[in-house]
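Hey, resending since the last one bounced:
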Amino acid sequence: MPFASTDIDWSNLSWNWTQFCPTGLKPFANDTNDLLPCFQKTLLQLPVYTIFAALSAYYFGIQTNSKVIARNQRQLQVLALRTFVTIILGLLPVVKIFVFHNASVDLYAVDVLVVCAECIMWAVHYGYLLNSRHNGELSNRGPLLINVVWLCVVVLDGVWLRTSLNFTWWPWSLGTFVCDLIYGLTLLPRGNAVYVALSQTAAANREQEALLSNRYTYFQFDFNEAHLGHAQDEANWLSRFLFHWVNPLISKGVAGKLKKIEDLFDLPDVLNVTRLSERLHSALNHSNSLWRALHRCFGLEFYVIGILRLIADLSGFAGPLLLGGLLRQQGEEANAHGKAYYYALGLFLSTLLSALCATHFDWRMAMVSLKMRVGVVNAIYRKALEARGLHEAKPDILNLMSTDTDRIVNSCISFHFFWSIPFKLFTTLYLLYTQLGAAFLAGVAFAALLIPINRWLAKRIGIYSTGLMEAKDGRLSATTETMQGAKQIKINSWEDIFITKIRGLRQKELRFLGKRKYLDAMCVYFWATTPILMCLLTFGVSVLMGQQLIASTTYTSVALLYMLIGPLNAFPWVLNGLIEAWVSIKRVQQLLNVPDLDYSSYYNPIIKGTGRGGDGEAPSVLQMKGASFAHDQDENHSGFKLENINVDIKAGQLICIEGPVGGGKSSFLAAIVASNRLLDGEFCVQELTTGFGYVSQTPWLQRGTIRDNIVWGGNFDEQWYKTVIHACALEEDIKALGGDHLGIGENGRTLSGGQRARVALARAVYQDKKIYLLDDILSAVDAHVANHIIKYCILRLLKNKTRIIVTRSFKLFFHANQILSMEAGQMRPSDYMTESIDFSEDDDDEVEEKQNGIDSIANAEDKQSVDSLLLEESREYGHLSSNVFACYWQAVSTPLALTVLLFVVLMQLTRNLSDAWLAHWVTETTLDPHPNDTSLEHKLGDAGHTTGFYLGIFAGIAVTNSIVTLVRAFLFAYAGIKAAIYMHELLLKRVMFAKFNFFDITSVGRILNRFSSDTNTVDDSLPFILNILLAQLVGLIGALFVSLYAMPWLGLVVVPMVPIYLNLQQRYRHASRDIKRLSSNAMSPLYTHFTETLQGLTTIRSMRASPRFQRDFQAKLEESIKAQLTQSAAQQWLALRLQLLGALLVGGAGLLAAITASHTTNPGLVGLCISYALSITGQLGDLLHAMAETEQELVAVERINQYLQLEGEQNAEGNAEAPFGWPAQGVISYTDVELSYREHLSPALKGISFQTEAFERIGIVGRTGAGKTSILAALLRVAPLNQGEIRLDHVNLRTLPLHTLRERVGVITQEPFLFEGTVRENLDPRHGFYDSEIWHAVKNSPAATLLVQQLGGLDGQVDKCGNNLSAGQKQLLCLARALLKNAKVVCIDEGTSNLDDESDLCMQQALRSAFKSCTLLFIAHRLRGLQAMDRILVLEDGRICEEGKPMELAANTSSIFHDMLRAQNINPGDFTKAN
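The structure tokens again:
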């Protein structure tokens, strides 16, 4: 029957909770700590079940329209099991309620409601799981939200199980909980899945649909390929507030799509590089002070951000005070109960506010810092392009751009901390005083005492760091030299000598490293032990002064004391940072004060009338009248000067300049392009703007392709380009190198000297200037190439240009309009102007074809493959493999690693134990019925222990912790050093004994990277960050355990947060790892461009290319800033989310404390729990950053580990010893030898067979690439033979140890190898000969004797790589070394362009006389002097095509040898005369 409205008394209508459920909404019974069943069902289970059902339905709907997924067997099995468990979980409550009903158990409305909710929840979830088999996410675990709410369900089931233990129906709860655990187990396996295209049938059905049907509007847009757009510009205010706009970046990182700079955010409008540069530039023009200019541009924004810092600090102080208030409510009666909830809410809100303000402060600071970086870096670069007299300051300027700019930018945050830290300190101290009275001074005094100790430690660490850097430089210098000469070292079998040398330098470095690491350990010790000792001193003194340790004051004080530690430790570094920044600003200011180069005051225009001569004579383009010049750096003009230069150059003239070395020829050209200072006189030019086509004596090229270097930012005109290439004789070279898209290293290091000079010339010609200045470019190239350039380039392509050339070429003198001679800074007409020049003795025959780029005994292989390896350093993507961890673990050694881990855990245990003991003591004191008795003998609590007893135990634990911490700090330092020693030693051996071709395909720079930055990381930063990681990890675990022990209900909040945290850290690490890699990769092009600019400053200025270089620089700077901005955005995204988690934890702990306030029995534990919860926020972030950092540092181990896997040479140890006295005769026999350097290359030798007599001298000749060098390579086992065998005195060389073979064969390579040390060490590296024997070997060659005497005898110094000797002199010392070795077989690979006539003569004499008692294999490039050979082998394409006596081959006009003699302008008739 329907109710009539009149039957209800609306005024008295009330909901009867006890009818709905007997205990109503009360959370706790008065006598227990368990939650009451009604509270659980009504306020916990019902809402959570409803949310879980709603989420399952939502994702079920979303998945239906998502992509189709194909899962592997494992994923399908796991999903099937999960679905089965879900059916059981849905049926259990229904069965249970029927059983209860039949057993006449009392059932209430709430029971039926919860069963219905649970049943519906699992039914909907069952549908979602069925749909997940072919739709949804690739992971079988499903969306994060579903997992979080599922965990809440599990926690509630666990709590319900605990409650039901008091009743007879507990097995039902146990069954549910077991099913939950099985469900949880199905979430562990990962399996694999992929997105699939729609099946054929679906596609067929679609074809029958109308074209414009709705089905066609679904466009599957692959989000990860999406362009991210401008950072935060397109985002709304809420997205900016929560950093939601960073989500697409993180998702892209997880998908592994962050591989190029273009994949990152574009710069927002406020970070427009050009606009910021101009803004600071105009501010600098306004006031020349950098400090004022920065202030003017960014000051207001910078100071306003400070407000955020202030709010964050103030809300930080609210935490401890509200905690005290909350703890004062504990145990009070229900009337004050409502206040506890306000305190809990206040705790949550203050934590939240602090989190938001701190994150946004960091983000805003990052933005301001980047703006300042853009402005300062650009100002430095602009100044470098425009200032005069910079040549001296080169390394300094690079430092200004990297180190000094970093310091200035980092000082931004330091400045805000500079006022924030004292503010925090004084506020904290005042609050401590209000809590503890004068006792707080004990802890503060201890903390203050640490400041001078830390200062002293920092000073000592600084001193040792300097020593360490010097020692490191020494080791790196020796390593560089070793790696540059690695192939020669291996050929001579000197690996052990150089390993010993580097090892000695490494020992010295390790001594400094050890001292520094142990001091670091002291710092770590003080840092880790401070909190406990401060608590001990503060509370100890407080108790001794007769105060009671009650929960509210104690835990407020603990929280405040922890707040003190950070600022106290940080303040010295903040001060340091500000002082460094001030120094850096002054250094940059010095550069900005350098005056700019002003062309209009340097050059005068040519006055119309004076520039033109008589009838139709060309106008003047350049005039000097009584001009004197000095070098820019020469302030007092005391150095070299050009004096009283008078010259008048007309348009289209060819001017040649000659003169002795050091006469001032290059200085004259430098004066023309305004690189020198004009002292007096007048310098007039026709026009300023177009500049000059300038080619310097040492050619300057940029890293990039050959075409980029020639076109040089101009428009590409194919016809003109081809003309220029031909005129500069580059066609053949480009073809041989594999095209003009070949990349060349810094300063063209992958090209030969002659090629570099020609590319530089082609660049100048391509720019099509009116005046060309060529500084001795012909000396770097061969005669026939020089003739080509003169004919096609200088005299044809540039015939209408004005050409001023420094040269010694008679051919050019013949065509010159003026020949000027420079001597001692004076210019006069040359004597050649009056002499007649005879062309019959043209200098063609001096230089023959030059072989470029064959490096000692390595083959000139396909440059393309070498180069592609040179340009792109291998970069790993994704996860670090377990091998990397295994490698480092092995380096530390298992026993030591386990001991370290044990002490880390012990340290944390004692730390948590001391906190727990304090909580126990506080509880006893707070609940003490006699609060006025404060003596040490006063007995507390039921156990009857005195206050003194509690204090004694607390002190004991604190001291134990201190000792364990100290041991752990030193153990860690020791383990780090041990790993560093092991890794470097192994790396050095592996690289030194690696295969030969490793050094062909790996650039020296890349090998050195492993020995410099990667080794540095393993030595220094990796152990440091690993230490922090382990401390943070055990710290977090300890904090969570203690919190959960103190307040088990906190599990309701903590457990569901675990998947959120794991998901956050996994996503962030994916993205941050790739962003970090991109960020470090983006810095290199910036610095490379800058160093290149400084090296080529004269060229850039003279060709007037400064504006273009500035644009290029800004583009590279933009990329670098992009990476830094993205990195910062990702960090703030993470920080905010972690701090929100922390705030939830604090809020949850506060709420639970408020709920339990009225009946709590343990206020100490509540205080402990919340004070831990307050610190967990920071720990979560710190742990994640430490993990990300460790992972980044472990990349160094990964890179070193790649080299630890290098293969050694084949059969290096040999399987037979050489006979005694072997080799005695020196009879070499090659039988059908085939050799290729790498698998994919065609053989360099094809079926070579020949045999020598004892002591025979064999000359090997052939064109470039014919395989001459490969004959020696095969003999010395540089690469394994494909087939055939080589015997020496009837011993198969393949069976011998490499060391023996290479020791007993004398080798002189094309590129002479000397190293830093005395002459004696260079001639006799093994110290196996007496001085008299060494002198005897040297005296075989008069030129070598003279050279050794000039150097200062056998103790004279040879510089690194023999840099203090000319190429010819180096060759002489190598010759003496080979003579000293007195081997029975000597191989000489004759150098080509290095030898001057004198050393050439020495070589010929030695060949005739000194090497009489040995078999000689002589590879000749110049054929003069081969008469001394007994036999000649002519090679063509890896085969012997001719052999015979020199005279016979020369006389035979149809022989290849005869043609080769002709090509080198040697008369075969002279050759056949008796020797």
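The longest helix spans residues 337-386.

Sorry for the duplicate.
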